[in-house]
Amino acid sequence: RWDVLVLTPWLAPIVWEGTFSRDILNAQYVQKNLVTGVVTFAVEKYWFFIHGFMRSANKYFLAGHQVNFYLFTDSPEKISHLQMAPENNLFVIPVQNHSRWQDISTSRMDVISTYIHSQFQYEVDYLYSIDIDVQLLAHIGVEIIDALVGTITAHPENKAYETRPESRAAVPEGEGDFYYTASFYGGSVSEVYKLTRACSKGIMEDRERGIEARWHDESHLNKYLLYHKPTRLLSPEYYWDTEL
């Protein structure tokens, strides 16, 4: 591909369709006997998206490989039986609701880091967080697997880093490189633990100061990935807005 940027300044690959051989990568992945986890949250009105997300993810996310789906929801009773592929497992985990959607958003990092420490690190090798209102329309394969993975947005000018110096999410003027969505990120379970723990700590410290970052957990994610460079970036193809 010559029409897009395929390498970062720190020499991490940017994955676009046409830049990899899925057959070769599948063969390498199978030999390692790995398990990948997916974390998603369906809290408050978002339980409506559960079946659409799970049907598409069950079909398209690492198809043919073992995947554990961890669905956090405040409405487990609303989830009817979902038919999963033989190699996939679904775990429904009750989680507390919050009165404000911002609090739901910022609490995710704490929940993920807590469960990695207590459970996920013993069950999966890689872990990805994906928003429940995402629809997978084509195969997402093992080309996404790496130590620390972020997905860049199609129009970063529509988002901006947190710049207030009193926030732990603040990015100094002129220091940013890519803008990453909090709707799709992941990596090895150990690296995702470091990321979510650091972001959760920053969110808590902001809260103690009475500050809320501009884009909540996404602002903290971008601050972390600025100083802890991802080893692989996913192109905007992996989180595309049909309105664009």
UniProtKB/TrEMBL annotation:
Family affiliation: Belongs to the glycosyltransferase 6 family.
Entry annotation: catalytic residues: E218
Location of the protein in the cell: Membrane
Major location category of this protein: membrane
InterPro entries listed in its UniProt record: Glyco_trans_6, Nucleotide-diphossugar_trans
Binding of UDP-N-acetyl-alpha-D-galactosamine, residues: F41, A42, V43, Y46, D131, I132, D133
Identification of the protein by name: BGAT1 transferase
